[in-house]
Amino acid sequence: MLQADAHRSFADSVYAMTAPTFSTTAPSAHSHNAWPSRQWAQVSAHDFAAARTSGLAEATIAVLPVAAVEQHGPHLPLGVDAALLQGVIDAALPKIPVELPALFLPPQNVGLSTEHLSYPGTLTLSPATVIALWTELGACVARAGIGKLLLLNGHGGQVSVMDIVARELRMHHGLMVYSASWFSLPLPGEVSEQFSAEEHRFGIHAGRSRPR
Ligand SMILES: [Zn+2]
Fold first, then answer.
1. Ligand 1 mean position to 156 CA, how many Å?
2. Residues 92-109: what's their mean pLDDT?
3. CATH number for the domain including 115?
4. Within 10 Å of residue 163's Cβ, how many Cβ atoms?
5. CA-based R_g, the chain, Å
6. Hey, is 165 helix, strand or coil?
7. Ligand 1: distance of its center to the CA of 201 in Å?
8. Residue 98 counted as domain residue
9. Most CB within 10 Å of its CB: which of 27, 42, 88, 195?
10. Number of structural domains found in the chain
């Protein structure tokens, strides 16, 4: 359960998980072999069975996107966190080298948003349910013969849950788990300079909820 370093990019986190020390399969052994899609749900059970035999599964990193559906001020829809996380994924996908086997699980867009329950429309699961949900999905990843999982988060209220889930999966299923939140990753200079110090401190992602 390694916490992604704040100075690492998302791609760096993925690379770190493919370091030789984390894999018992030499990259050349499976380089001829690849998933037919980056999307878990687009792959067949037959392809999963073949990947297990060839060693591709063991070398693969599964990515579980986790977001939230909750209030974001009077001016934005509830799905901001889910939309932003999907945007990060869409931008990252073309940058992942073809030889790097990464599979994206279906995004879990309802998470832990109990702090927003007083705002109508917010959807939340209980902490116990969130832990069970992500842990059970991780167990399915392990059952498919995949040894590495990245929890990729888009909601500040559930950062600590990732650590609990990572520990559970490590202990009970032998998974190597990284966790990262997109908002903890560094912004490129040309993006960063578009926001004031106040915006950086209080959250770029939802803009102002009050008039000045
Ligand atoms: Zn948010």
1. 7
2. 96
3. 3.40.50.10310
4. 14
5. 18
6. helix
7. 14
8. yes
9. 88
10. 1
